[in-house]
Model the fold of this input.
Amino acid sequence: MKFLHWIPSLLMVGAMTAAAANDDPRDLIHRYKLVKSKSAALCQHMAGVYRENFKHPWHHESKSSADGDKYFGMLPHELFKALDGVPQTPSDSFDLLLNKRPTSAEFDAVPWLEGRMKINSYYSPALTPRREFAPILISSIDVDNDGRSEYFVKLGFMASQPRNGLFGWGSAPIDAIRIYDGEAVKNTDFSRFESRKHQENTVLSEIFRTNANTTFIRPLRYQGRWYFHAYHTKWPEVETTHGLPSKESIEIFQIDRGGAEGAPRRMSMCVFDVSTMNKHGRR
Done:
């Protein structure tokens, strides 16, 4: 009965497989290794922020498991301050959650306002036939640190951890960001925003274009300057059982006016390689 000696091993393998199968990717513990630094103070500080506050960067909320109308124990109007006349709903708030949590003092410094955009001015009505307005987030910040504020506007949102199925994108939408100079959107009603009626700052907006590898960007403030947290991914060439990117990293960049003739210049300040493990110590 030599096969009896195999039984403990088989049971162990089966248990490990079952445990792995039941692991929710949102529960993976994330670790951050600083691999590039152009500012020891900034990068070491943010390393501590990520280590303490970003162990689980993908929120555990979902439309099916939320506490009634609440996310993170907060009602929609408690998540983000809204412009006058904007009706805040749990359905709309769900799209915005990754801009709320995880957080720290650096991310809380962003003066977000929740607004609305007419869908037919940006999205295809055929995709959302019964919805006239979509949520947006607006913040007046000094994007390029030149002493003058711009409007940083998120018109589309990455709402969940990317998974395979659409390689390069994952299965989640990606951020859509536009930058507007103050005069370009002067007296604009951001509760009924029509983006095509306003001229964006194309040079700054181009810096924030998201794509297959950069899917999510959040502003943050550190020692009086504005920086940006960018999430980067690489995808395997074949489907995987866990469905996650083959490589993840976080970059912190800033923009200044150090380019030719004072043009905006994007400067990468810190890069963190991201590794993950589950509660069993495995990916």
About this structure: The longest strand covers residues 265-277.
